[in-house]
Amino acid sequence: MSAKIYTVSDGELVLTLEVLPEEEGGGYGVTSPLEPQLVTEAKTFEEAFEMARDAIIALRESRQRYARRIAELAAAEA
């Protein structure tokens, strides 16, 4: 049996939800075509959007730290 996959949007985010097997706890695997590094899980559609927003915040913070570190290293080499 192939997995059921849904593309959903709340007007701000576009998410891809893959139904997870009940034997693995059920719920949804959550990714986004617009944010390829976003990967999380949720029990409901509503929770999927909450988890996705939290993941996006974490990704942005991580990218900012990484960019600052690269800038520091570049400045040290100059």
Describe the structure.
This protein is α+β, with helices and mostly antiparallel strands. 42% of the residues lie in helices and 24% in strands. It contains 1 helix and 4 strands, in the order ββββα. A 4-stranded antiparallel beta sheet has the order 1-2-3-4, with helices on one face.
Task: Label this structure with key terms.
single chain; alpha+beta; 1 helix; 4 strands; 42% helix
Write the layout of secondary structure elements.
Blueprint: E1 5-9, E2 14-19, E3 28-31, E4 39-42, H1 45-77
Antiparallel strand pairs: 1-2, 2-3, 3-4
Q: What's the quick description here?
A:
By secondary structure, this protein is α+β, with helices and mostly antiparallel strands. The chain has one helix at residues 45-77; strands at residues 5-9, 14-19, 28-31, 39-42. It is built from 1 helix and 4 strands.
Report the average pLDDT across residues.
93
User: Helical region count?
Assistant: 1
User: How many angstroms does the end-to-end distance come to?
Assistant: 57 Å
Oligomeric status? single chain
Q: Which range best describes the helical content: under 10%, 10-25%, 25-40%, 40-55%, 55-70% or over 70%? A: 40-55%
The ordered string of helix (H) and strand (E) elements is: EEEEH
Q: How is the biggest beta sheet arranged? A: 4 strands, antiparallel
What would the principal axes of the Cα set say about the shape? elongated
Class by SSE composition: alpha+beta
Strand content: 15-25%
Number of strands: 4
Rg from alpha-carbon coordinates? 17 Å
Q: Largest sheet, order of strands side by side?
A: 1-2-3-4
Query: Uncertain regions: pLDDT < 50 for 5+ in a row?
Result: none
